[in-house]
């Protein structure tokens, strides 16, 4: 993106400016070592203004992030915004490790999810996370097997955090941890499946 804060294994920033952006049928086996704020195994950041779609995507590499203050990291997408994006039938089976620090633990946030780090509105459907998530941050953290932070009119349906997955998180200031979602606010659907 223009701020230079997004990094993705396939695309850094996906924006449907004139027509819907689509990322389909892809697998990333590579590793990502970065200090960027928005990081995803497939896309660093997506904007749902015109219905971008990520479907049948797999991430099997590793993500290692050392960022200051604020970061949003996901196995498929780091940060997703807008009412019309969809992440569907996608999976994460490898490892995410995040170290986000600041001079004060009360300043800065980190959101980490096996599928998506943070989402505002939009839809995440039929995705599977079975990887390892390690949060070694000293700032406020929301960590989830599927999504770190879910806000707004967002739908999270038929997703699974398998028994092969694990979450290892530091007990940081105002930390929130969940097998499906780390934190949820103003969401309208959370019909998630923990194990099939």
What is this entry, summarized?
With 196 residues, the protein is an all-beta fold.
Topology diagram in text:
Elements: E1 6-8, E2 11-15, E3 22-28, E4 32-34, E5 38-40, E6 43-47, E7 53-59, E8 62-68, E9 70-74, E10 77-81, E11 86-88, E12 91-92, E13 95-101, E14 109-113, E15 116-120, E16 123-125, E17 128-129, E18 132-135, E19 140-144, E20 147-151, E21 155-157, E22 160-161, E23 166-169, E24 176-178, E25 181-185, E26 189-191
Parallel strand pairs: 1-5, 2-6, 3-7, 4-8, 5-9, 6-10, 7-11, 7-12, 8-13, 9-14, 10-15, 11-16, 12-17, 13-18, 14-19, 15-20, 16-21, 17-22, 18-23, 19-24, 20-25, 21-26
Account of the protein in words:
This protein is mostly beta strands and 196 residues long. The chain is built from no helices and 26 strands. The chain has strands spanning 6-8, 11-15, 22-28, 32-34, 38-40, 43-47, 53-59, 62-68, 70-74, 77-81, 86-88, 91-92, 95-101, 109-113, 116-120, 123-125, 128-129, 132-135, 140-144, 147-151, 155-157, 160-161, 166-169, 176-178, 181-185, 189-191.
Which terms would index this structure?
single chain; 196 residues; mainly beta; nine-stranded parallel beta sheet; six-stranded parallel beta sheet; globular; disordered C terminus
Largest sheet: 9 strands, parallel
Structural class: mainly beta
- How much is the radius of gyration in Å? 15 Å
Calculate the terminal CA-CA distance, rounded to whole Å. Answer: 37 Å
The outline comes out as: globular
Total number of strands: 26
The portion of residues forming beta strands comes to over 45%
Please report the number of helical segments. 0
Return the string of H and E elements.
EEEEEEEEEEEEEEEEEEEEEEEEEE
List unreliable stretches of 5+ residues.
188-196
């Amino acid at each position: 993106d223009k701020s230079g804060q997004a990094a993705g294994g396939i695309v850094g920033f996906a924006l449907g400016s004139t027509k819907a952006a689509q990322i389909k049928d892809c697998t990333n086996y590579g590793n990502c070592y970065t200090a960027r704020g928005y990081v995803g195994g497939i896309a660093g950041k997506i904007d749902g203004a015109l219905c971008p779609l990520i479907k049948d995507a797999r991430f099997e590499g590793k993500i290692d992030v050392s960022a200051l203050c604020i970061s949003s990291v996901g196995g498929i997408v780091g940060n997703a915004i807008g009412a019309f994006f969809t992440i569907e039938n996608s999976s994460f089976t490898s490892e995410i490790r995040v170290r986000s620090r600041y001079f004060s633990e009360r300043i800065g946030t980190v959101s980490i999810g096996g599928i998506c780090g943070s989402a505002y509105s939009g839809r995440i459907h039929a995705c599977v996370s079975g990887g390892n998530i390690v949060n070694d941050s000293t700032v406020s953290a929301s960590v989830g097997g599927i999504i770190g932070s879910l806000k707004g009119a967002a739908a999270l349906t038929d997703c699974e955090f398998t028994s092969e997955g694990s979450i290892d998180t530091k007990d940081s200031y105002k930390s929130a941890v969940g097998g499906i979602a780390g934190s949820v606010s103003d969401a309208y659907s959370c019909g998630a499946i923990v194990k099939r």
